[in-house]
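Predict structure. Input: ATP-binding protein, 259 residues.
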Amino acid sequence: MTHALIAAKSGWGKSWFSQWWTEDNLDNYPIVVVLDRRDEFRGLVKAGMASWGVIGDQEASVTVAGWRQMLVENGRTVLARHQLNGDRWKDVVAKIVRAAMQIDQDVLVVIDEAHKVAPQSGGYPDAIEDLATEGRGQVASLWVTQRLAKLDEDPIGEMMIYMLGGFQSDADLRKVDGNVGYPSDVHKVNGAPVHGLPDDLHADDGPIPVRKFTEDGSTVGSEWIYSDDDGNRRRINTKTLSMESTHYGPDSLTLSIPG
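Output follows.
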């Protein structure tokens, strides 16, 4: 099954792009679970595309078997974190991932703020590592992060698809190096023209870094580089994309929809 990474700096439109990608793939998977750490995928619920649940103290004690039953019965679910931090959040995510791996159907697991679940330092449960590195059963995954430098190198290296936006941190850019087959400087926000950038990744203005587009202070689109294990790659402008559900920021504010 496919494992994909969406990563960009804060404010790049990452959560909108992640919701668009999830919505676009709903018909491909009879079971979808979104582990929504910041409550940013509830637009899927409001649009009637998924059910909604909260993971708090009580839910954190649910067994793997209990989570497996819940996933099968609900089909498509957004699970929002409620006051669970650190190891407690990682542990419950691990149980849900393990439950997904036990289901004899195609499953999509979306992990928001993935650097909190598989951090570069501090360790994380085996089930989370297995999701990316072993690809057991029929489980696909989408890992979403704004702190690429803090996401462990093992899952990054195991991704089959990369959808990367802009970064300002040199530490984030170093994580890009070695995992994609093009100059990582294309992801450097406000950087200089990118020497050696393949023609198929040029913008309309030539070999320049990816850009973010704003109107009246709101993000209305951003550019991303898509690449995969088959050698496919292209520049994506989210201004050309649209989705049926509405995206909401963490403070319940509606964001502009590109296009």
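The longest strand covers residues 218-228.
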